[in-house]
User: Fold this.
Amino acid sequence: MASRSICRLALVRSHLSPNPLMASEKDAALSAAPSDSPTIFDKIMKKEIPSTVVYEDDVALAFRDISPQAPTHILIIPKVKDGLTGLSKAEERHCEILGRLLYTAKLVAKQEGLEDGFRVVINDGPSGCQSVYHLHIHLLGGRQMNWPPG
Ligand code: 5GP
Assistant:
């Protein structure tokens, strides 16, 4: 229980300022309880906390990840969560928005000049290393990716 609290503290710290004590992505994911509550992404959408938005339309928002894992690392989210805390919660009604998000990833990749290729990732649940429970696509590019992923 104590280690879980420490992980949570580290996650909170990671939203205050980048520093060496910042929890690893894995720690953050393992300490994040799957939930339908508002997330940090709601604050980003409401401009309550700053972010670098690179694309926006009526249904999707794309902004740079605060902890980039590649020269280009962008998160693409639906503006309305509609129960999509993660991909595992997808239902038939979400097909259209899921398609739009993938297409948005392609548009943003082009906008970012990722002509040689890129990677899209959706982490799901604790085992998938998901730390923010508002569905998002990671768009990564600008370096050679490896396979298998970690
Ligand atoms: P997940 O681990 O859930 O797949 O991805 C969540 C992502 O959100 C992580 O890559 C993390 O760096 C990013 N992130 C967390 N908090 C913030 C924030 O306040 N601003 C931005 N731009 N990205 C964030």
Residues 95-111 form the longest helix (17 residues). The mean pLDDT is 87.
